[in-house]
User: Fold this.
Amino acid sequence: MNRGTVVAEALDLLDEVGLDGVSTRQLAKRLGVEQPSLYWHFRTKKDLLAAMAQAAMAPHANAPLPTPGDDWRAWFLENTRSFRRTLLLHRDGARLHAGSTPTADLDRIRHKMAFLVASGVPEHDARTAMLTASRFTVGSVLEEQADSGLGVGGELPADVPSIDPEAAFEAGLSLIVDGLTPRATA
Assistant:
């Protein structure tokens, strides 16, 4: 049993039982080991959750970085969509990610920020837009993955209009980009 196997099994457990059901006891049982043997790889459950969050974000973290010739608007939209798609890959993906620190992704974040600034977006606005898009995306996915507001049987009450989560996300994302566009000099 290695660290990667433990994280992969923990993500499978997450998909089956949700974040509230993930425990080191359940994970050890799933792996066929005693619970203390997990501490060889992860000192605390918090350490395990951080490793799970990092592994769950791999599809987004490995997406191509922007290049100088790219249109910053098109890149910003695709980067945020990629983030959303990645959060949706796992049950409770947004909850798992929320509050995690992207320490392994800092160089990529710096590259993205430098790209926006080089594209004419003022540094403060680039930082604010990246943070806003990130929090908007996590919040959107949290709502999408939650059961709140659903009536018995998973259906909305008759007096509540149905909302397409993807359409709502795209509308909000467009507002962010549209608000940033006049502030960019290029």
